[in-house]
Amino acid sequence: MQDPTTQLSNAFSKAITTAFGDDYASVDPLIKPSGNPKFGDYQANVAMSLAKRVGDNPRNVAQKIVDTLDLGNWGEKLEIAGPGFINIHLKADYLVSQLAAVAADEHLGLDQADGQKVVVDYSGPNVAKEMHVGHLRSTVIGDSIARVLDFLGYTVIRQNHLGDWGTQFGMLIENLIDEGADAGTHISDLKTFYQGAKKRFDEEPEFKDRARKRVVALQGGDEQTLQLWRKLIDESKLHFNHAYGLLGVLLTDDDIRAESFYNDQLPGVITALEEAGQLKESQGAKVVYPEGFKDEQGNPFPMIVCKSDGGFLYATTDLAAIAYRMNELKADRIVYVTDSRQSQHFAMVFQTVLQAGLNTTGAKLDHVSFGTVLGPDRKPFKTRSGDTVKLIDLMEEAVIRSQKVLAQKAADLTDDQQKNVARVVGIGALKYADLSSDRIKDYVFDWDRMLALEGNTAPYLINAYVRIQSIFRKGDIDLATVDASKITLGHDAEKALALKLLQFGNVVQSVASSLEPHRLCTYLYELASGFHSFYEKCPVLKGDVAPELRDSRLALSALVARTLKSGLNLLGIDVVERM
């Protein structure tokens, strides 16, 4: 179904074409929610920009649009304000019909995509290394984007590009042997294991020599070495899956496409670049010169795809991955979620794909970059000792802190219920603090702010959902029995809430397009705030409320709860019924 913004845009576009001719058929009417009831429900800001093109006064342009526009079944009245704004007042019964249609649809009125395939590449930790706070952003942002696209009906293929290949595995495998891997050693602390192997590699010449030989054996396909390499991967996956489980992301082992998966395809990448006339030689290495990239002296900036010793690089693997995702997975869109430090790398890779003619399917390539998590000192977030913060430790601390914050509020719950609430709210707060920030910017990690029960936080949103559940419990009413067609919109707070509910689809679509989850966070916060305002001004269960009005407000509340729950789920955040 179309939300009001889409319907209004279509009506205004038709009016503009009728009033000024077909040359103006592509003009954007610039329809936006007004945010202020006295200015109407929506506002069209097109007259000012259109006036320059038609050579007329903006208010005259606005008047011609208003005179031509058909209000249909949706419009109550139009007003021209200020220099040429067009304020749009919608009919209450139109809004009610739209709400009823949304409530009756399992996707809350969102049109479903036509089955296009989208690959979302996110998380990507390195084998034999502990996941840390730096992996938080890629994992939760990527997971939210994948959830949104899936909800909209796209065929989503999640890809976890594990770092499982390279010279460092020589030292790791040798260290594993020395620690008695054949006896079934379990690596309880990946970080300590990796640091121990690196220390030995730097300080013990004999170990260093063995490690280098082990790399040769690994690359040569020695079976014993490969078995130990697989052990490292399996051990690492146990750690990764534990973190994913606590974090509530949807990645599984089936989504893993590690670096090693593309090894056999790398020579083909070099051949394809050579056949496309893109391969050059520089100091013995094979390089590509992506158009538009220059060094500090203004010379073409090379991207190395094969070192002078014959070794391949990340760029080669990424080109192979793109080819695989286009040709084998048949992706229509490929989304990479990595930090902004890799922006130039992916820009060069994407440009290489373009100029080498490798994009034979026309797939859209997107790099979803993000900033850094900062500590209170506005430097990269570290422990007090200066170490990188383990992701597992961060999540566990979130749950503990949440339990302390909620101790008094959840006093009437059982111990198991309190633990579940603490987990949901703590992990939700951690994820929401990340997702609600404009992803391209750095953000300061602040426990007090993210766990606050007021403001733009997960606890505030979850609490709004809980408040609605408590209304239905108090009235001994089943949410499933309410009828959205019985909603009436007499009070301004009711109408404001209805308008906000009808914006959900447009917001979710904008997240799918922009790949910016913070837009959904902002919307959910405004929806929760709108509900609290409605709840204060519009009694629901009080004895003097007429039955018809009570049913209307219950139906409105139920749709808010469902929208909050669905929206939070798209962010990867659970809800609870009590807290």
Describe the structure.
Helices cover 51% and strands 10% of the residues. It is α/β, with parallel strands linked by helices and 579 residues long. Among the domains are: 4-90, Arginyl tRNA synthetase N-terminal domain (Gyrase A, domain 2); 168-255, no CATH class. It is globular, with a radius of gyration of 28 Å. The model has no long low-confidence stretch (mean pLDDT 92).
Summarize the structure.
With 579 residues, this protein is of the alpha/beta class.
**How would you classify the helix and strand content by structural class?**
alpha/beta
Question: Approximately what portion of the residues adopt beta-strand conformation?
Answer: 5-15%
How can the largest sheet be summarized? Answer: 4 strands, antiparallel
Taking strands numbered 1, 2, ... along the chain, how are they ordered across the largest sheet? 1-2-4-3
- End-to-end separation in angstroms reads 35 Å
Q: Assign an overall shape.
A: globular
Strand element count: 13
Which regions are unreliable across 5 or more consecutive residues at pLDDT < 50?
A: none
- What portion of residues is helical? 40-55%
Average pLDDT, all residues: 92
Count of separate DSSP helical elements = 20
The radius of gyration is 28 Å
